[in-house]
User: What shape does this take?
Amino acid sequence: EIMLTQSPATLSLSPGERATLSCRASQSVSNYLAWYQQKPGQAPRLLMYGASNRATGIPARFSGSGSGTEFALTISSLEPDDFAVYYCQQHSGWPRTFGQGTKVEIK
Amino acid sequence: EEQLLESGGDLVQPGGSLRLSCAASGFTFSAYAMHWVRQAPGKGLEWVSTITGSGSDRYYRDSVKGRSTISRDNSKNTLYLQMNRLRAEDTAVYYCTKGPGSFEYWGQGTLVTVSS
Assistant: This one.
């Protein structure tokens, strides 16, 4: 099973600041990595696929990078709507696995 | 507009059974792999099962293998998850999702509670 480790667990930032979230895989997943945003009481929403491709309707302030075992999601300037939990997920192997999540909270 | 609408969640006793359904609309259902992903209360996301567009291939996480069956009816645009011998640790919101590999669209989920 491919383990995904996200860091940090919590990121405390102010609106307008830059957020960088990390996701590390226990073995290479090539670029078969996605990022999701989840707000309380809502279903997750796909942000990025193929490590660096924004999903439909996702603002340009979100960007993804990395390949192999090291990945990052960057939010260039946090908007109030961006405070949420973010998960990475790999679809390189079975079982599909998620990271444990990073909570981006208002400082 | 794409839509996924789950149903079938309920309170069930340990050892019981439940069938979840997911009605899909707004896209060519048979062209997409479909998935079930769950989230226990206050916890993270956990992939449960996947079925290919034709239904020919199915995949399960180990903890539900042998107890659960994923299926689909492409004539009804509906995905199913039959869950048997339910355990307390199966308690979660179950989401239906679509996508080739990443989960590009999600339903709002249905709550399954396993408790006596």
About this structure: The first strand of chain A starts at residue 4 and ends at 7.
